[in-house]
C-alpha cells in the first residue's frame, strides 16, 4: 500500500502532457513554469547609475523661471457656466389638459343633515334602478310635444299649477318647505325610443325654468333660506333629496352655483347663483360615440358621447362631458345617467320660492335643436 502511494506521488512529480491542460478547457495550455537561477547565498546589488529617465542632466529639461502664475481674479467669461433657468417666468399652460375639478366637503348654503344623507343612501341601496320601459307611440309623441305633468313629492309643501299651454307650469312653495325634488310623470329620454344605439342619431333633452322669487332676499350665500335646482334623474329617486345628490342624478343648484353629479357632499364650482327674473335651462345630448369605446372603456360604463349644458337667459353658459371621471366620493359614478336608463326632468326646491317651468320647445329662450 505504501509503495503504491509512493509511486503515485512520484508520478505526480512528473506530470504527463495531458495534465498540462486546464481542467475545463483542454485547448488552453498554461505558460511553462519559470526557473530562478539566483543563488540564495548571492547578495542582491542594484544596477549602476540612476533609473532610466531620472536624474540625468543631459535631458535638457529645466523648470520655468520664477514662481508659478497666480489664478486670475477675473476668469475668462467663456469659461462661465450657463445661467440658471429663470424661475420667475410663468410657463405657457394653454396646451396642458385642464386640472381635475375639486369637490367640496360641504356647501355654504347646506341645510340638509348627515342623517338625511344616510337615509337616502340606504334608500337607494334598497331600490335598484328601473330598467328601461317601452312606451306606446302615443305616449312618446306626447313627450315630444312637451305634454309633461309635474308630480308633488311627499316632502313638498306648496302649489303646482298647470297653465293653459301644455308643458307650462307655475309653482310656489311655502316658507318651511323641506328639500324636495319635483319629477315629471313621463321620462323626457326613453332608452328604447331615443337611444342613439337604436336610432343612430343624437338625442337632446332640455327644459327651462324662470325664477320669480327666492326666499326673503338674504344678502349672502350663507344667509340663503331657499333655493332652486334643475337636473335629471333616473328612477327611482328619493324625492326628499335635491337632484344631483344621489345615485342616478345630476343637477345645477341655484343657491351655491355648483354642479352635483351623484355628490352628497359639497359639489363643484360651476356657475353663479340664480337670480329673480332669470331663466335657466339644463340639457343633455346623447350621441353615437365618435371613437368606438375599447373593451376597458365599455367596462367602465362609457356607452355614448354625452354633452351636458347649462343656459342662462337664452345663452349657453357652460357644460361638461358626461363621461368625465368623478371624484372617488361619488359611489357608483355616473350610473343611470349614461344613456342606459330612462331620464326624468327634476326640479329641486327648499324654502319659499316661486318659479315657472317650460317643457315645450316653443316656450324656450334657448334653441338647442
TrEMBL record:
Residues 62-84 have a biased composition (Pro residues). Residues 14-27, 104-113 have a biased composition (Polar residues). It comes from Lentithecium fluviatile CBS 122367. One of its GO terms (cellular component) is membrane. Keywords: Membrane, Transmembrane, Transmembrane helix. The lineage of its organism: Eukaryota, Fungi, Dikarya, Ascomycota, Pezizomycotina. It is found in: Membrane. InterPro entries: B30.2/SPRY_sf (IPR043136), SPRY_Ssh4-like (IPR035780), Ubq-SigPath_Reg (IPR050618). This is SPRY domain-containing protein. It comes from the Eukaryota. Residues 1-113 are annotated as: Disordered.
